[in-house]
Specification:
Chain B: InterPro entries: ABC_transp_permease, BCAA_transport_permease. The structure holds two protein chains of two kinds. Chain A has ten helices and ten strands. By secondary structure, chain A is an alpha/beta fold. Chain A is globular and about 60 Å long. Chain B starts with a helix and ends in a 14-residue tail after the last helix. The chains are: A alpha/beta, B mainly alpha.
């Protein structure tokens, strides 16, 4: 069994005395889709924020690709291959779709500003390569028709896809999706599910996602982790979790 | 009629000079949310450094190059030493910090370069020329041309280069920018460096216009109504705001001055700014903050 891509060990986090996460431990295997579920306030988003360095855990550690971190910074996490999307659409509203996606590649720039300004040296190959990758991801997520539109003018469902494209274009090995289907109708949810599955299957990206719609979660994920009041109450395959009495009590309501 | 046109054109061209100062504010405010009160001191510092080097007998371009390095280094140093340790503090704290920086810059400049008034000659002839029956100052035309080139260069920088895209990304959503690995602090340094460059341009033109003296820092006070009218986050707004203030000032001076006993231009811009605050608080090109209800 290869080493898990992400290991959380006794991660705790509190905000002014309120325990958001309480000694939480679980593993995410390489190449899987792992869903985090739990009622509002269970600590799901806090957990994503710890993994990509927005918050710092009070105790415990995060092991990513075999490297142990007590504190990681968001930009550093991105450079190490952690991509993420946001629950609210945190897009660059005034930029076009292409520029939003291109921004996701900026950390891979090697050419200096001078080379870039005059289009010489490393910049020529790099610019070609960047444009190719942006086009590729835009085509993959069916955004080609909207490529030059300013993001703020696009419908919500498409904006969500731009967010995904921006996170994906830099080739992350771990992708964190914070409620990628929040506020979507059934058709849009299906479409997004398809994109997530394709990303996982054809790019091999490991995905950790937060989702509330149980039918989506059950259809999408290989692995489900259930949180309740910052504690882990379930961890296993979707079928295991569905049968787990603690989970049913905490989240799914009483058994039928 | 031709007198009116002459007044208007003169005012518009003078307004461009205000725009030059306002652009420096916009750059920093847009990228990092800091209202940099030290912009005026940076303008002074640029003019004073340049003129001191020239007085020492340095060649024009060499002096310009050294001054440019000094200004970019100064901008970067302010970001690194003063603002970075204050990151995530309330805006008023950052503003007060830049106020402090402005005193430090002025004090040090005075110690190093003295407080006497210098004349600055850029080699631009300031005799009026006639265009279509209207007398126009050559110096003002040159200043407007410089501002035009600067604005085009900045808009290419912001729209076409990766650094520019990254800067606009930060302005829209810093958290998301971090999540894709954009290094905020590096980019803030770049923006402060660019602000140093813009204050060099403004410093040279204002210094040539008014003489290099400590009163030069007061151009900040003229830039403020420009920013209020144009909006704090738009370079286009800074230009339009400058034109409105410039034209308003000179037209009001001529037509209201005789009624009110003169010196209308010292306060007219602020009245305009107050009117804009009442009608359109975000300015012409600024964005109204969206608040959750």
């Amino acid at each position: 069994m290869p080493e898990p891509i992400l290991q959380l060990r006794d991660v705790s986090l509190s905000f002014k005395g309120i325990k958001a996460l309480n000694a939480l431990s679980f593993d995410v295997e390489r190449g899987e889709i792992c869903a985090l579920i739990g009622p509002n306030g269970a600590g799901k988003s806090s957990l994503l924020n710890i993994i990509n360095g927005v918050y710092r855990a009070d105790s415990g550690s995060v092991v990513f690709n075999g490297e142990r971190f007590v504190r990681i910074r968001p930009a550093q996490a991105a450079h190490l291959g952690v991509g993420r999307t946001f629950q609210h659409n945190a897009l660059f509203r005034h930029l076009s779709v292409l520029d939003n996606v291109l921004a996701g590649l900026i950390r891979h720039c090697r050419a200096t500003m001078v080379e870039h300004a005059f289009g010489v040296g490393r910049d020529r190959r790099e610019s070609r390569e960047f444009n190719r990758r942006v086009d590729e991801i835009a085509a993959f997520l069916d955004l080609t028709n909207h490529r030059d539109r300013v993001v703020a003018t696009l419908p919500y469902g498409i904006q969500k896809r731009v967010d995904l494209a921006r996170a994906l274009v830099g080739g992350p090995s771990l992708l964190l999706l914070d409620e990628p289907m929040a506020g979507m109708n059934q058709d849009e949810k299906q479409e997004m599910s398809r994109f997530i599955l394709e990303t996982n299957a054809s790019l091999g990206t490991t995905i950790v996602l937060i989702e509330h719609d149980m039918s989506v979660v059950m259809g999408l994920s290989h692995h489900v982790v259930v949180l309740d009041y910052g504690r882990k109450v379930g961890d296993g395959s979707p079928e295991d979790v569905r049968r787990n009495p603690d989970v049913i009590a905490a989240y799914l309501g009483t058994a039928h | 009629m031709s007198f009116f046109v002459e007044t208007l054109v003169g005012g518009l061209l003078a307004g461009v000079m205000y725009s030059l100062v306002a652009i420096g504010f916009v750059l920093v405010f847009k990228a990092s949310g800091v209202f940099n009160f030290a912009q005026g001191s940076m303008v002074l510092c640029a003019a004073l450094t340049f003129v001191t080097l020239r007085d020492k007998g340095l060649d024009f371009w060499l002096a310009a190059l050294i001054t440019l390095s000094v200004m970019v280094a100064l901008g970067i140093a302010v970001e690194r030493v003063v603002l970075r340790p204050l990151v995530n503090r309330p805006q008023i704290t950052l503003f007060m910090a830049t106020l402090g920086v402005s005193f430090v810059i002025e004090g040090v400049a005075q110690i190093v370069m003295g407080a006497s008034v210098h004349e600055l000659d850029l080699g631009i002839v300031d005799t009026p020329i006639e265009i279509g029956g209207v007398q126009v100052s050559q110096f003002d035309l040159a200043a407007a041309g410089t501002a035009g080139i600067l604005v085009v260069a900045l808009s290419i920088f912001f729209n076409k280069t990766r650094v520019g895209i990254a800067l606009r990304a930060i302005a829209d959503d810093p958290q998301a920018a971090l999540s894709i690995g954009i290094r905020l602090q590096t980019l803030w340094q770049i923006v402060w460096g660019v602000a140093g460059f813009v204050s060099l341009i403004a410093g040279l033109l204002w210094g040539a216009r008014q003489g290099v003296q400590f009163a030069l820092t007061l151009v900040v006070l003229k830039a403020l109504p420009v920013l209020i009218i144009g909006g704090f986050t738009s370079i286009a707004g800074a230009i339009i705001g400058g034109l409105i203030v410039g034209a308003g000032d000179s037209v009001a001076e001529i037509y209201l001055g005789s009624l009110l006993g003169g010196s209308v231009s010292t306060w007219f811009a602020y009245v305009l700014a107050v009117a804009f605050l009442l009608v359109r608080p975000a300015g012409l090109f600024g964005e109204a903050p969206i608040e959750r209800i």
